[in-house]
Amino acid sequence: MTSIQKQDGTVLEAMRPKTRRPPLYKVLLLNDDFTPMDFVVVVLQKYFSMNRERATRIMLQIHREGMGMCGVFTKDVASTKVKQVVSYARQHQHPLACVMEENE
Predict the structure, then answer these.
(1) Do 81 and 98 form a contact (C-beta atoms < 8 A)?
(2) Are 60 and 53 in contact (CB under 8 A)?
(3) What CA–CA distance (Å, rounded) separates 77 from 38?
(4) What pTM was estimated for this model as a whole?
(5) What single-letter DSSP state applies at residue 15?
(6) What is the torsion angle, in degrees rounded to the nearest 10, for the CA atoms of residue 36, residue 40, residue 42 and residue 46?
């Protein structure tokens, strides 16, 4: 809030509307027994702009822990990334699952 004092002593306060940031969503890749590890690395590089080293680390996390986070995005961006990854995986006949969940 900003305030302006006038000559007669009154104070005017400007109200700014309160805006909230949009909720963010995590995009996660889920492990399966069929999608090759190298394909997961390619997906992470292609759709999440990761270098090979980081993509390999995330791929290993997915393999060991059952899932791994690819990034945090607004709802529209997260939804688009999920659709792109799933479509790309199906085009290459892999069952790779990609999901989004609200970031807490």
Answers:
(1) yes
(2) no
(3) 25
(4) 0.81
(5) P
(6) 150
